[in-house]
Amino acid sequence: MPKLGTVVVFAMFVSTAYAQEAPMPAPEASGPPPGSTQATFTSASSEPWEVLVDRHPACETPCSIYVPPMRFVTLRSRNRVLLEVGMLPPSPVVVRGTHLASGAYAGGIVGTTFAGIGVVTGITLTAVGCATDHRGMCTAGLITGGVSAVGLYLSIRLLQSAVPKAEVLPAQPYVAGNSVGLAGTF
After folding, report:
1. DSSP per-residue codes, 105-165
2. Are residues 184 and 169 in contact, defined by beta-carbon separation less than 8 angstroms?
3. Tens-of-pLDDT digits for all 186 residues of the chain?
4. Is 145 a member of any domain?
5. pTM exceeding 0.85
6. Secondary structure letter of residue 3 according to DSSP
7. Judgement on whether residues 88 and 111 belong to the same structural domain of the protein
8. Choosing a second label site near 50 at 20 to 30 A (CA), which of 67, 77, 107, 114?
9. CA 26/CA 13 separation, integer angstroms
10. In angstroms, rounded to a whole number, what is the distance separating the alpha carbons of residues 139 and 150?
């Protein structure tokens, strides 16, 4: 029994906690952190973007904030499309997000499909016509393949132009009358 009492007494001394004074919070510095980038975020359409700094929500477009140096900026749409902007340069910038252009995207898909079929048809006609001395088929294959290749290239470019993108533009200061501000391409 004495050993049990010793253990209990020992446990009571170990479990005793003492309160300590909380450290005083550091005074808040006025203004942005040194080296921050003044960034104005806009949307190219009426649908807003949520601005994330290091994956944490910062604001919703249109907004203007100071982004501390070496922070990763991302734009997120309401339907969860993520556009990675990256780290911003030290000068004032305007970041503009563009949403998916649905019509152009659909047109690019249709054009890519039919132009791709045309390229395959042109290759087949050219191979069969030129190999068997059918000049008409060989010529038709070359024309079909060439026109379809141009259509395929343009359709792919249309697809690329339709996807969501973020642009980082330099901010342009302006002075008008008795007011001074920051302007960009909106």
Report:
1. HHHHHHHHHHHHHHHHHHHHHHHHHHHTT-HHHHHHHHHHHHHHHHHHHHHHHHHHHHS-E
2. yes
3. 455 444 444 444 444 444 455 454 454 556 777 878 888 888 888 888 889 998 888 888 888 888 888 888 989 988 888 888 888 888 888 888 888 888 999 999 999 999 999 999 999 999 999 899 889 999 999 999 999 999 999 999 999 999 888 888 887 765 555 555 555 554
4. yes
5. no
6. H
7. no
8. 107
9. 35
10. 17
Nearest to 32 by CA among 62, 61, 58, 60: 58
Instruction: Give yes or no: residues 154 and 65 share one domain.
Output: no
> Quick one: tokens of 52?
């994330």
Q: Are strands 37-43 and 93-98 parallel, antiparallel or unpaired?
A: parallel
Residues 61 and 98: their CA atoms lie apart, in Å, by 12
Number of domains composing the chain: 2
On whether both 122 and 85 belong to a single domain, the answer is no
85 lies in the same domain as 45: yes
Q: How many CB atoms neighbour CB 89 within 10 A?
A: 11
Half-sphere exposure of 133 (CA within 13 A, CB side): 0
The answer on 52 and 91 residing in a single domain is yes
Residue 74: closest CA among 94, 97, 91, 93: 97
